[in-house]
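The protein record filed here.
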Amino acid sequence: MRHDLQIAPQFYVTAPQPCPYLEGRMERKLFTALQGEQAAELNDALSKQGFRRSQNVLYRPSCSECAACMSARIRVADFEPTRSQKRVLKRNAHLERRPTSPWATEAQYDLFREYLDTRHADGGMADMDMFEFAAMIEETPVRSRLIEYSDRNAPDDGPLAACLTDILDDGLSMVYSFFGPSLTRNSPGTFLILDHVNVARELNLPYVYLGYWVPGSPKMGYKANFDALEIFRDGAWQPIGDPDGYDSALHPLSTDPIAEQVARISLPGGRPVGR
């Protein structure tokens, strides 16, 4: 990530770039490096404060024009699938889950390319080659898994869907998921989330972290369809409530200065930034 200003020790902010979720808005991110012996502890601590991981970087949107990008997670113990989501589980019952080490393969990359070419051909990742894909999967200083899903009746045909997943001390974080066009009618994105809820239950983990929910965004609004959803807002996790009641998050005065945002961040052990 390109940066032009150091805000506090180890924390930086990116230069403004066009927002991929809301047309006409500019996006910038607050980020820090994820490295060293305490990488896992830092990932756990900052994930609880709305940060996400990308390879060896932790980041959180910190835009000057709005506060629409809010980290979202499902409370596993309280989650109940809707009728529609139960049908999604049935339509994907032929898929078999297989967790693997975060080591990229050509079969995964072929699936990834199919996914980009059919759904995100003009996106920021459209030109990723095998080496960049391998970096996305393998450059992880924390406990990660690449969870593959293949047809249980034809396991040798390779994966039909996959998700790079971090295992946190309080949940599973879905870093990046992708799937082939043959699954499109079966709502594979919804299925992957539902299956991660099942995995979290099997591991007795309380949350599944979904990335960012953005009110008013066609790309990210679907996450509000999941029961027991919480969003990180104003420094705390809270039930999402009415998904249509977040107009204030789009207001230019809805954000605090970055220095104040950084001052409220807690590092492992509860230490504030700078100590």
Observations:
- Residues 188-202 form the longest helix (15 residues).
- The mean pLDDT is 90.
